[in-house]
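Priority: medium. Attachment 1 of 2:
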């Protein structure tokens, strides 16, 4: 051991100290370490994963094949209308022909259309009515507007709001979906003659109005809009 001089012993001690420091910092291998990142392998794996992904990222709605499980495509309908009822069956039939149909969304849209139609009729706005009504209903509304104008009468109307809007029936008629709603709304409405005198209604009183309206849409058409095809005032 005499051939070890001071310098050799110093470097040996330094090497041992460095070894233990590195061990403490880097830790020991346990066998569960993640393998080092290999960019080439990762690239090949990514290519394989990409190849497995379908070209269409968004799943397009489709009609179910006969006997195919319904899964939860009717969940919103079952929550809206009790299963096995005529209403539920009618809404399901519409869903089968129009995968984008949702009853709650329809009701929200129908409520907006109701207010637009009521106010357009009061204002004699034929253009708005034409976009929202079927030909038969439009002709009836326009005839009433024309009769009112011939008498120089005007409707003073203020829409307060809708208290209730319930789907009471739904069915497919050929390729057309038909949905009937019972709508309870509040309006302030009065008809005035040429001199401004009130001949119908009351400009100071909020009146409750009950309507039964039917909307329809051709599910074979790309036009997503529903149109009012029948109206009835409930007593």
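Attachment 2 of 2:
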């Amino acid at each position: 051991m005499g051939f070890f001089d001071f310098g050799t012993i110093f470097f040996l001690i330094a090497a041992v100290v460095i070894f233990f420091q590195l061990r403490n910092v880097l830790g020991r291998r346990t066998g569960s370490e993640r393998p080092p990142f290999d960019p080439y392998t990762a690239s090949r794996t990514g290519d394989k994963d990409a190849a497995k992904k379908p070209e269409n990222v968004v799943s397009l709605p489709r009609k179910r094949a006969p006997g195919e499980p319904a899964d939860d495509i009717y969940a919103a309908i079952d929550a809206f209308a009790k299963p096995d009822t005529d209403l539920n069956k009618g809404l399901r039939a519409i869903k089968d022909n129009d995968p984008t149909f949702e009853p709650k969304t329809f009701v929200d849209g129908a409520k907006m259309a109701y207010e637009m139609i009521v106010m357009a009729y009061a204002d004699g706005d034929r253009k708005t009515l034409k976009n929202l009504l079927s030909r038969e209903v439009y002709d009836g509304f326009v005839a009433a507007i024309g009769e009112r104008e011939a008498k120089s009468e005007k409707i003073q109307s203020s829409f307060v709001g809708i208290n209730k809007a319930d789907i009471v029936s739904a069915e497919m008629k050929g390729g057309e979906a038909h949905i009937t709603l019972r709508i309870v709304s509040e309006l302030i409405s009065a008809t005035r003659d040429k001199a401004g005198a009130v001949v119908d209604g009351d400009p100071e009183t909020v009146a409750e109005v009950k309507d039964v309206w039917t909307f329809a849409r051709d599910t074979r058409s790309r036009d997503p809009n529903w149109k009012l095809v029948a109206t009835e005032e409930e007593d």
